[in-house]
Amino acid sequence: MTPIVHVLLATYNGARHVAQQWASIEAQEGVRVVLHVADDASTDGTPQLLEQLAARRSGAVIDVQWLHAPPRRSATGSFMLLLAQAVERFPDLAWLAFSDQDDIWLPAKLARGVATLADAPAGQPALYGARTLIVDEDNRELAPSELFRQPPCFRNAVAQSIMGGNTMVMNGAAARLVARSAGMPLQAHDWFSYQLVSGAGGKVHYDPQPFVRYRQHGNNQVGSNIGWRATLNRLRRMFFGRHYTEWNDKHVAALRARAEVLTSANRDILEAFHQARHATRPWTRLAWLRRSGVFRQPGIQQFILWLGCIARRI
Questions:
Q1: DSSP symbol at 104
Q2: Of the four listed, 62, 139, 257, 297, which is most buried by Cβ atoms within 10 Å?
């Protein structure tokens, strides 16, 4: 039987590129797609274009579901509402994926994720993510995204997101697990999905082969992570702003609120990281960070994490 994947598409003023992304979803091979769409009060004709695309849907797309909710939700807010709605409307859904509005998927993108996670034991949450191929606004190739060499795990997920939501596929158990956090003040749906699934002892797979052409332009919610410029920008934001600290505030609070689903070992890791963020003395914070085992990759990112801990910027 051909697997059905529920794809969540959140849009905002995406009329320039969304038709290309929609076409790449229709071109998916080896799966059927139920597309769940949420537009966040676009003013550039995106809602009308989406209605036209839905009316003449073809290929892998077999159904389109719409989210009707108050606007100005943020992309993460839209994705979490879509996720909650999808698992409510389709309680037996087996596969789910996130979709940005301006990427282009290779035809095997969804099938690759499904095949990778198919051997997860029944009831075990499982999450797939991958590298991307960075392209410019006109779809010209720039470079593959950074290759992360250490396997995904909760100790990494606590401090770093290594897989974009636009690459993710999750099984039904993972979708239902994450959906129960809808309504929490999260910063990033994809990072939190990695944290919660790994924290609950689920299977997480990182694929070094890209299946998404990730378009870079001035309106990206999150830019690419390649090159020294991106590293220096993260360092600047950590030490001269509160972005990373505020993001951790939200996600650590959400994880602690869901502590009952975490493994005992991962609850200990989370508590040690919490202490590393809030202890009074720098050397005490460093001791707790070391005890937690939390890490970022590659090595320069780990160095930044230690500096951030000393400066109380994590």
A1: E
A2: 297
Distance, CA of 216 to CA of 74 (rounded, Å): 19
Cα distance between residue 21 and residue 91, in whole Å: 27
Specify whether the backbone of 131 is left (phi greater than 0), alpha (psi in -120 to 50) or beta.
beta
Contacts of 65 (CB under 8 A, 6+ apart): 34, 35, 36, 37, 85, 86, 89
Return the C-alpha torsion angle 206, 209, 212, 215, nearest 10. Answer: 100
Q: What is the pLDDT of residues 113-137, one digit of tens each?
A: 999 999 999 999 999 999 999 999 9
Condensed to tens digits (0 to 9), the pLDDT of residues 263-314 reads: 999 999 999 999 999 999 999 999 999 999 999 999 999 999 999 999 999 9
Tens digits of residue pLDDT in 71-104:
888 999 999 999 999 999 999 999 999 999 999 9
Residues with Cβ < 8 Å from 256, sequence gap 6 or more?
270, 274
Between CA 65 and CA 71, with CA 66 as vertex, the angle to 5 degrees is 160
Q: Where in the chain is the domain with CATH 3.90.550.10?
A: 4-215
Residue 239 has pLDDT above 60, yes or no: no
Reported in sequence order, the residue ranges of 208-303 that DSSP labels E, i.e. its strands, are: 212-215
For domain 4-215, which CATH number applies: 3.30.2130.30, 3.90.550.10, 3.40.1190.10, 2.60.120.10? 3.90.550.10
User: Interhelix angle for 299-310 vs 227-240, to 10°?
Assistant: 10
